[in-house]
Amino acid sequence: MEKTSTDAFPSTMNSSEKQETVCIFGTGDFGRSLALKMLQCDYSIVFGSRNPQKSSLLPNGAEVLSYSEAAQKSDIIIIAVHREHYEFLKELTEVLKGKILVDISNNLKINQYPESNAEYLVQLVPGAHVVKAFNTISAWALQSGALDANRQVFVCGNDSKAKQRVMDIVRTLGLTPLDQGSLMAAKEIENYPLQLFPMWKFPFYLSAILCVFFFFYCVIRDIIYPYVNGKKDSTFRLAISIPNRIFPIAALTLLALVYLPGVTAAILQLYRGTKYRRFPDWLDHWLLCRKQLGLAALGFAFLHVLYTLVIPIRYYVRWTLKNRTITQATAKTEDPFSTSTAWLNDSYIALGILGFFLFVLLGITSLPSVSNMVNWREFRFVQPTPWCMAERDSSVLRVSDGTFLQPT
Ligand SMILES: Cc1cc2nc3c(=O)[nH]c(=O)nc-3n(C[C@H](O)[C@H](O)[C@H](O)COP(=O)(O)OP(=O)(O)OC[C@H]3O[C@@H](n4cnc5c(N)ncnc54)[C@H](O)[C@@H]3O)c2cc1C
Ligand SMILES: NC(=O)C1=CN([C@@H]2O[C@H](COP(=O)(O)OP(=O)(O)OC[C@H]3O[C@@H](n4cnc5c(N)ncnc54)[C@H](OP(=O)(O)O)[C@@H]3O)[C@@H](O)[C@H]2O)C=CC1
Ligand code: HEM
Ligand SMILES: [Fe+3]
């Protein structure tokens, strides 16, 4: 089969600046994407494949050999093969002795196997130095260059020299390596891409608790009390009136909880007299999920606005208006226009609209694509020192358990 090129940007650098040769096992999606990116950064690539003659769609400039031939060409071998097919590596133990094997694999489920894929690789090829890396970067992101949101590459391994060499490659590719320590961290790194919104758990449960609490409060106040007191059936309020009370209250409570941990952190730092000590776990977690709390608050505010907009078309509201008009007409009375009531009502609604506008503005400026466009001063004009910038700022160190340490 003829080889087709997917290399849109052939290397232009002088051959004297050529980087080392790297071997990639597996000519699948990930192997090809990584090879393309590495060729662009002037590495020489040798693929190892079960069928070197049949491999297609490989990037221009890459050589394809059998697994054992390819392994001899480089001392860094990236294993772009699924864990289920690692068995063949056993036969290559001799060739792979002393080489750096980069495990990039992911699983389909959290804790699918008792040991991490990287540790399994160590068992199969005991003489090699295994380094875990690249598993959180997708083949698509490597090809399209859409890596803005996540340039971080978690790296771990037991041999520090091997790890350093892999981290150098990561850096050359324009990505940010994050040393996660020994191969014991591999399991956590492999679980990382499989986690489902871990930071949403706390905001989700908190929102649910707030909604349930205010729901029962409103049911007692607006449904049970009128029924017990005057035998009035107000159950229809369950659909719109009560949710439209719960939503804005939940929005304001969650908004307060976005800014409260920052203040708590500041007070704690003042009390301790230093900012170079770790925050307690609960505060650390609370600080980290402010983005989610803020978005949940914005969601509730949105719901409140929608529920408010439908008020004029509600049967209950139309009936009340019609009934009042008829009562006034039959009694031949008139409701005089009250300027102060009009003022109060308009101001109330205008404040709601302006409040909502500010809420949306806060949300928009927190979006990474927007906040990346404005400078520090502009950002602080809308938001005080944003933690979300600190999240991406390399001056704040993220330690392996996900907590933040302040820069020195
Ligand atoms: C509608 C809405 C949407 C949002 N969307 C997002 C979003 O998409 N992404 C996102 O990330 N956030 C989002 N947020 C959260 C919000 O942007 C930030 O959490 C908020 O700007 C934090 O401000 P702050 O003043 O409370 O905290 P900060 O200014 O971060 O912190 C207050 C105090 O904490 C201490 N502190 C903070 N950082 C450090 C540090 N690096 N070193 C030492 N001490 C420190 C200091 O004592 C500081 O004075 C959203 C919020 C809302 C309301
Ligand atoms: N795709 C992605 O976005 C990402 C993938 N990964 C990881 O990269 C690894 C490769 O993924 P991907 O490239 O998508 O997978 P593919 O299925 O596209 O490619 C796997 C390659 O493995 C080789 N291989 C070796 N032995 C076997 C075998 N017995 N059966 C089948 N294939 C075999 C094949 O290459 P050949 O025919 O040349 O021998 C094949 O092309 C996986 O471990 C995955 O978890 C990690 C992050 C992201
Ligand atoms: C377009 C924007 C908005 C409009 C038109 C609006 C309008 C209204 C109206 C008409 C009510 C009375 C609802 C009722 O009693 O049935 C109300 C209640 C309320 N609104 Fe808004 N609002 C807006 C945005 C906001 C925002 C952004 C917040 C803050 C998060 C907010 C907070 C509240 C609160 C706390 C109540 C009282 C809920 C209660 O206890 O009954 N509003 N709003
Ligand atoms: Fe953020």
UniProtKB/TrEMBL annotation:
> Which cofactor(s) are needed, names only?
FAD; heme b
- Check the record and name the InterPro entries matching this protein: Fe3_Rdtase_TM_dom (IPR013130), NAD(P)-bd_dom_sf (IPR036291), P5C_Rdtase_cat_N (IPR028939), STEAP_metalloreductase (IPR051267)
**Which Gene3D superfamilies did the record assign?**
NAD(P)-binding Rossmann-like Domain (3.40.50.720)
Q: Does the keyword S-adenosyl-L-methionine apply?
A: no
Where does the source fall among the domains of life? Eukaryota
Keyword flag Iron:
yes
GO BP annotations, alphabetical order? copper ion import; iron ion transport
Recorded GO molecular functions are: cupric reductase (NADH) activity; ferric-chelate reductase (NADPH) activity; metal ion binding
Which Pfam families does this chain map to? F420_oxidored (PF03807), Ferric_reduct (PF01794)
* Catalysed reactions, as listed in the record: 2 Fe(2+) + NADP(+) + H(+) = 2 Fe(3+) + NADPH; 2 Cu(+) + NADP(+) + H(+) = 2 Cu(2+) + NADPH
The Pyrroline-5-carboxylate reductase catalytic N-terminal domain, residue ranges: 21-107
Q: How does the entry describe its membrane topology?
A: Multi-pass membrane protein
Annotated GO CC locations: endosome membrane; plasma membrane
Q: Kindly list the places in or outside the cell where this protein is found, as annotated in its UniProt entry.
A: Endosome membrane
- Name all Ferric oxidoreductase domain ranges: 249-382
The entry sums up its family as follows: Belongs to the STEAP family.
Name the record gives this protein: Metalloreductase STEAP4 isoform X2
UniProt organism field: Callorhinus ursinus
Q: What is the lineage of its organism?
A: Eukaryota, Metazoa, Chordata, Craniata, Vertebrata
Q: Which gene encodes it?
A: STEAP4
